[in-house]
Design goal:
single chain, binds S-adenosylmethionine, alpha/beta, Cobalt-precorrin-4 Transmethylase, domain 1, 5-stranded parallel sheet, 4 domains
Length: 490
């Protein structure tokens, strides 16, 4: 348990005394002046910056060493000297007068410590390591700075502006809190990112209207739980239910750098991460250390958590008020069973949002240098699931044989069947084809051939799933390597 109690102080118009005149003192003084404090600096020597501030009348200066009585009238004090004896004397005076003191790098003589700060508009994030490692605090602050940027500051300003209006429109405090959560968990931030404050207002207005409307039978991502019902809910379990949310986040095709920045942001603030087999371990590691991590992927021999148990898990955690990130390989809605999970969440009245991902259907061919469309040779592409073709398939193979580029996911084991079906529908034997295994990863391997020999080439190369198959002229156009060459990036 931390021994420090975090607060944000209103220093406007209050006296702060700073003992010391070097670079560290200057940095502290600048922070105090920016917060509106009246600053007195006590030091025989002053840095150039402090001299400048004194000349401009921004601070008062006593150009001499500290002496007892210097803290008189102070509301806050900082000792930025490297002399422990001075710190000790200042500390004794501060304690006697009941003035909070921070002695820089001298924890023993501190009654408060200064956190590493990240400011963005009205948002301030303070990081403390309890005085144990200021350097770590700074690094953590820098990571936070990547998450809390101008869009968040813009949103914060807008929400502050709308606060009185919302208090009037939704007088019930609990209902209003539920609505605030619905707003900040919604896509309003996307409008802020685009700098579209009118759009953001409109979206918030929609959410307020929906919240005040008669309950819908099936709430979805755009319809937070009806607030009329919230008025009558008193139990904490019901309360938690309103704050829980599930984000279905596309993790991309394998390379952890290919998640969207929005997906990563949500992942880094998740309470629970539920992830599949093809999701990179490096991405799962991005979740907070305290987050619950649940692996639900199918094992190679076909075992794994059943879909209905995954759905139940998502609903359960959201109902406990958790922020759940359901991390799925590629894009959640491309053969990812994302739709089923959304249906289950909607049926359970759990709020959810889908964050699209970079699908392997286009990214894996791209990683092998194959564009799925090309102005001269392919003005359309189709994406199909190959495991459908193991003897049975509902797909229209006659039509698929005519699509300029065919991308097949989960098609490695059924590759001979796929080739046979296309050939039976008139596809030419010399149609270029490629199989890319572990695309975008360091172990990526690509086998290139034609419909005539691609199944044999892939088998001979002993390619392992996950693999994506691309069939069409784009294979020839995109690759710089001669056809039939086995390319290994490893
Ligand atoms: C169950 S599907 C999920 C697809 C995913 N939702 C997407 O949008 O990429 C899994 C299939 O995607 C393809 N796949 C996923 N990651 C891949 C990778 N790194 N390299 C090659 N193919 C990949 C394979 O065909 C694999 O069998």
């Amino acid at each position: 348990m931390s021994a420090f109690y975090p607060v944000f102080l209103d220093l406007r118009g209050r006296r702060a005394v700073l003992i010391g005149g070097g670079a560290v003192a200057e940095q502290k003084v600048r922070g105090l002046v920016a917060a509106g404090a009246h600053v007195t600096v006590v030091s025989p020597d002053l840095s150039a910056g402090l001299t400048d501030l004194a000349l401009r009348g921004a601070i008062e200066v006593r150009r001499r060493p500290y002496r007892g009585g210097d803290l008189a009238g102070a509301w806050l004090a900082i000792a930025a000297t490297d002399d422990r004896a001075v710190n000790e004397a200042v500390y004794a005076e501060a304690e006697r007068l009941g003035i909070p003191l921070n002695a820089v790098d001298d924890l023993e003589h501190c009654s408060f410590i200064a956190p590493a700060i990240h400011h963005e508009g009205d948002i301030t994030v303070a990081v403390s390591t309890g005085g144990k490692s200021p350097a770590l605090a700074v690094r953590l602050r820098q990571r936070i700075a990547r998450l809390v940027g101008r869009a968040e500051a813009r949103l914060c300003a807008l929400l502050g502006e709308l606060r009185p209006e919302l208090a009037e429109r939704v007088p019930d405090a609990r209902a209003r809190t539920a609505l605030w959560y619905a707003i900040v968990d919604s896509d309003v931030i996307d409008f802020a990112r685009r700098g579209d404050s009118e759009g953001a207002r409109g979206r918030i207005d929609d959410l307020v209207r929906q919240a005040l409307a008669v309950p819908r039978l099936k709430p979805g991502p755009d319809s937070p739980l009806p607030l009329r019902a919230v008025h009558h809910r008193a139990h904490s379990s019901e309360w938690e239910r309103e704050t829980g949310v599930v984000y279905l986040v596309g993790a991309g095709p394998g390379d952890p750098g290919l998640i969207t920045s929005k997906g990563l942001e949500l992942l880094r603030s998740a309470d629970v991460v539920v992830y599949d087999r093809l999701v990179s371990a490096a991405l799962v590691a991005e979740a907070p250390a305290s987050a619950e991590r649940v692996f639900v992927g199918k094992q190679p021999h076909g075992t794994g958590m059943r879909q209905r148990d995954i759905n139940a898990l998502l609903v359960d955690r959201a109902r406990r008020g958790r922020t759940v990130v359901r991390l799925k390989g590629g894009d959640p809605f491309v053969f990812g069973r994302g739709a089923e999970e959304c249906e289950a969440l909607r049926a359970a009245g759990v709020r959810f949002q889908v964050i699209p991902g970079v699908t392997s259907a286009t990214a894996v061919p791209a990683a092998a240098g194959i564009p799925v469309t090309h102005r001269r040779v392919a003005s359309a592409f189709a994406v199909v699931a190959g495991h459908e073709c193991d003897g049975r398939s509902d797909l229209d193979w006659e039509a698929l044989a005519r699509v300029p580029t065919l991308v097949v996911l989960m098609g490695l084991s059924a590759l001979p069947d796929i080739v046979a079906r296309l050939r039976a529908q008139g596809a030419a034997a010399d149609t270029p084809a490629a199989v890319i295994a572990s695309g975008t990863l360091p172990e990526q391997r690509t086998v290139v051939g034609t419909l005539e020999d691609i199944a044999d080439l892939a088998a001979a190369a002993r390619l392992e799933p996950p693999a994506t198959v691309v069939i069409g002229e784009v294979v020839r156009v995109g690759l710089t390597h001669p056809v039939r060459e086995l390319v290994s990036r490893a």
